[in-house]
Amino acid sequence: MGQVRVVFLWLILILLVFESPSCAQDTDNDSEAEVSEESEAAVESQPIGTLKINASYQAWDIGLNLTDLEACQKWSAFWEASAGGNSNKNVTAQDSSSKDAEDESESSAEQEPLNVEQETVTSVERMEEIGLDPELLKKYLNVVILYKEICHDYPRVVWFNTTAQAREIGLNATSPICAPFKEALNPDADKLVDLASILFNLAFESTNSTSAIEAELLLRIKRQMEEDNSEEVVIEAKSADSEKLVTVSNETSKVAVQIDSKDGASPTLMLGTLDAVAALGLKIDPSLFARHEKVGLYLPGVCGDVVPTAVNSFNASDFDGVDIEGNIGINVTALEASGVNLTELAEILRNDSQLDLILSRTADVNATRTLGGSFILPVLNKNKYDPFSPPIVFEGSAVGVRFGIYIESMSNFEASTMDYDMDIYLLMAWRDPRLVNPFDKPILIKEEEILEKIWRPDPFFANAKEAEFHEVTFLNFLMRIFPDGQVLYETRIKLKPACNLVLCKYPHDKQTCELLIKSFAYPIDTVRFEWFSDNKDAIDKNPDVKLPELYIDKYEPTVCNGTRKSGNFACLRAVFNLKRDIGFHVAQTYIPTSLALMFSWVGVWLPEEFMEGRIGVAITVLLTLSTESAGAREHLPSVSYLKAIDLWFGFITGFVFFTLLQTLFVIGFDKRASQLRKWATKKKTNVTQEARDAMIHKAERYHKVGRYLDNFCRVFFPLSFAMFLVMYFFVFTEGAQDDCLSR
Predict the structure, then answer these.
(1) What strands, in cross-sheet order, belong to the sheet with 244-249?
(2) What CATH number does the domain located at 316-580 have?
(3) What is the number of alpha carbons within 13 Å of residue 434 lying toward its C-beta?
């Protein structure tokens, strides 16, 4: 058996090296290279065996829709009818997998043969019928589908999330997996990268179940995979009946150990092979790897009972002879003496989801019956509370502060200064273990002198031109301290945030305004800002909030980059999407200017002898449009790009000017015709009758041209204006709000 394993490892290594691009450099001459390429192409064009699909994730990868498969529908109905529908399709723990196997083995023997357990597909028609790409039959002789397994629709990853599940699989405090969590409450990215490297080496270099030769082969395979980890690897193996089975997978699915730390607060460990599980000393059911691609460990959960190193307390002996007033730093000894369990505290802080529910606690009747602020004073003295130190008990941890805002009012949106007024309630929630108290009701603090004795975060509004607290009839704030140390702080603030308006589509514009909340002094490693998970708790508004022109279409809580020259700080962004109500501009701009333009068309319907009237109409309309244009732009900032309203007035003014030019042309033609008639009727002896007839004919032609222009413009003006309206309202005012800036 050992010799077979060594041969199999050699085969894998040879295949990896053979498929590497560097192999092309070992050819002796061009003719041999051509022969080699031709032979490889001939081999690749031939089917290479059987593709076996025996797991749900493999079915997804090749494009099978398990819900629509007739065989899977029958199996689902069978499992629901058997044992009261105990088929568990979404496996999330080890015992559920074995339970499924027991349920299947005890199923009714009379019904099971009616379902197709396995199918070997060899025809293109059948491939198309079940939704598979027929091109697969050009690569493989046939495709074997094990319906009894894939129809369970098992997830790609089976997760272990809690400390109880960790103990079941043999994960304890001595495991190298939880080593970083002993040093810090939430290990940073560098420590997680180091952990990934250590676990990766353990998985590949463990020799508990391999010989020295096998270990060397594993290391060589590891190096080859690291050099070329993007190519598809094809592994061939012979079964007992000499049928060639082919397993195809990408390197991303063959990584033995992988740590995903993109979300710094929720790192995960992915295990891809049984060898990796054995190397790490875990006891995971091997059947899980037959049904799932990977096994996932949620590290903050499975390592939740690992107590990290506590912060160092202030050592007064270093300052002998110095009078020290008040408490300094975090006193861990005092915390433990007051009943704080560091193990439970560490598990809570690693994923403090309870903090998201603090607003619901305020709705509780018992929570509304609060104690006075003076009740917190003995707690502060007992725990030796330092209001200048953030509540960080463990190394590598940061204070998580949840934020929420309630918009009471928005007004005075000034386009010229690009700002607006805002009245909000700012809510902050955090956990301070030093404030754990024995009372059964929350403590309400509304006195400034007591508030100054308690640590608070330091947010500021980065894009606010002005900000102030409401102080009538007293400073508007409240703080609730719950028995478990959760703190809810609320205050009322008046702001004047800046909003960078983009007026390309004005007055059909949609504006995006932001409210930036940043930490001023505490870096992100010390204080971390987060929105409440529920969007309604994160941002909400008074339903009566309305602006004269703009209205809030939607709002969204997001995060932002808080990096400054002095460091990296927490940053939250509240995004408000505003739409402009077009009704005002329709009544004040579009309808009056459109009527004025139509009034200028009256000239083309007047007889040619009303020259003064035609010119007067056009000039009057031009002056009216000039006044309207100035009024529409009065409250807008001076920008260097063309706005939609500028395009409107430009077209309308140009249209009226064109009407005036047309009037002048018609008047000119009529005047020329009148002069020719006058010359033709003069009694001069030197003018022949032919010349008189020619002048009369020419005068008639000028007159007809003038009449033709009038008749043409009677149709052209309305049609062109209608075309402009279509282009303006359906083309120019649509599209990206900042497209004029890109141009």
Answers:
(1) 118-121, 142-146, 50-53, 244-249, 233-238
(2) 2.70.170.10
(3) 30
